[in-house]
Amino acid sequence: MDILTIKFNAMERMTFNHLFYIKKARLLKNGKTPIFLRITANGIRAELSIHRTVQPDLWNQERQSSNGKSSDAEELNDYLKSLELRIYRHKQYLEEKNLPVTANAIKNMLSGTTKENAGIVELFSEHNQKCKELLGIDYAPATLTRYETTLKHLKEFIKQKYHVQDKSIKTVDYEFIKEFEHYLKTKRKCGNNSTIKYIRNFRKIVREAIKNDLLQKDPFIHIKYSLDTVEREYLTHPELMLILKKDFDIDRLQHVKDIFIFSCFTGLAYAEVKTLTRDNIKIDMEGTKWIEIIRRKTGRSVRIPMPDMAVTLLDKYKNHPFCVTHSKLLPVLSNQKMNAYLKEIADVCGIRKKITYHSARHTFASTVCLANGVPLEITQSNLGHSNPMMTQHYAKVGDPYKKSYLKVLNSKYSTSDKDKSSENLQFLGSGSK
Per the domain annotation, does 418 fall within a domain? Predict the structure, then answer.
């Protein structure tokens, strides 16, 4: 028997398989159990935790996956499929490099000892899992949702375009990014700004791959994006008064109207109003009530003085069953329902604008603050912005207020007094000398 035949027989006799399983005896405090992976190569085993958990009664050992159609079950099963692909991709890599295919070698590659051929979906999934573990610490729920949605679109794109579940991170180049952009705009019908936001989320994963030496150069280096300017709707003073003075016989409309008005006079976003409790209300030595919160979007501490309108609305709902049961200050519905009912409220009041709950924040900046002489820096502080440019984006001044400012200028710099006018012109020109 020659050497070639011996090698062939050795390869023929090689066995390799994997198994996902749970250990019911290792129940966690939340009632779930960790999932483990066992890799067997030529009869030698290596085991590791995959850092995922599942309810024991939902685990299907025969299928090695979770039962059910919940988003958590689907996410877990997708991850198991991507992990399975990684196992066999690592095995193929070792074979192509003429390296020993052992259970420990595959284990080391999976656990991060080496990630030379890591997948796009694999890296993104790991990133999102870390975000999930840091919810409420470094990440807000909305941020995680944004990353999860981006990953969902990316997985669908890879499947439709390349007919695989995952692709090596090394295959991400200029063409891949532009094709993903095209997919988002044509298949997903995303607008320019939404497309850019999804791609920016993906770019974070690419940057981390570069930092970990998984990519040699940045595929985004020649790609530039610019967001379209979006004019946000806000209520003018007459429109705000129309809603303010309107009383509704239907409780749901009255509640939504009151909560919307509360944000118009405090500048709080939906997520902040929804989570308000008594602990957020402080009273100073002079009896002024303040709202103290940590902005979920920026993590900045914000302290807002409460106008009488806001205090009255909180008093109105202090005994509301929902507020009492859930220890909240206002009976806030889902954002989707709030927006739907606000559309109804606007129609009843004859306001032909697309008003959403976020319009309250813009109304606070433009109509309640800036139009009433509140300095920009105070408006910025109340909104919790770190950048005045962001506040200027929120705060718009309508034509009626511009005209009132024109009256002030005309009265101060009257053209009827030629000497005074000449003096003013000399003053205005002196700065350029």
Answer: no
**Residue among 284, 265, 185 at smallest CA distance from 228:** 185
Q: Give the integer Cα–Cα distance in Å for 323 and 333.
A: 12
In the chain, how many domains are there?
Answer: 3
Write out pLDDT tens, residues 157-193.
Answer: 999 999 988 888 889 999 999 999 999 999 999 999 9
pTM higher than 0.85: no
Alpha-carbon distance of 330 to 35, in angstroms, equals 41
For residue 152, what is the domain's CATH number?
1.10.150.130
Among the ranges given (140-149, 337-346, 380-389), the one the predictor scored with the smallest mean pLDDT: 380-389
- Confirm if 397 and 411 have CB atoms less than 8 A apart: no
Predicted confidence (pLDDT) at residue 10 exceeds the cutoff of 50: no
Strands (E) located in 295-378? 301-305
**Greatest Cα pair distance in the chain:** 117
Q: Is 16 exposed, middle or buried (0-12, 13-18, 19+ CB in 10 A)?
A: middle
Helix (H) / strand (E) containing 141: helix 141-162
In this structure, are residues 40 and 16 in contact, taking their beta carbons and an 8 Å threshold? yes
Determine the Cα–Cα distance for residues 356 and 232; give it in Å rounded to an integer: 10
Residues 73 and 28 in one domain: yes
Packing angle of the helix pair 141-162, 120-133 (nearest 10 deg): 170
pLDDT digits (tens, 9 = 90+) for 264-293: 999 898 989 999 999 999 998 988 899 998
Q: How many CB atoms lie within 10 A of CB 176?
A: 19
The 10 Å Cβ neighbour count of residue 287 is 6
Give the mean pLDDT of 80-88.
Answer: 91
* Domain interval for residue 73: 1-114
On whether both 274 and 387 belong to a single domain, the answer is yes
In this structure, are 338 and 360 located in the same domain? yes
Strand residue runs (E) in 297-355: 301-305
In whole angstroms, give the CA distance from residue 220 to residue 206: 9
Instruction: Say if 432 falls within a structural domain.
Output: no
pLDDT, greater one: 402 or 385: 385
* Residue 407, in any domain of the structure: no
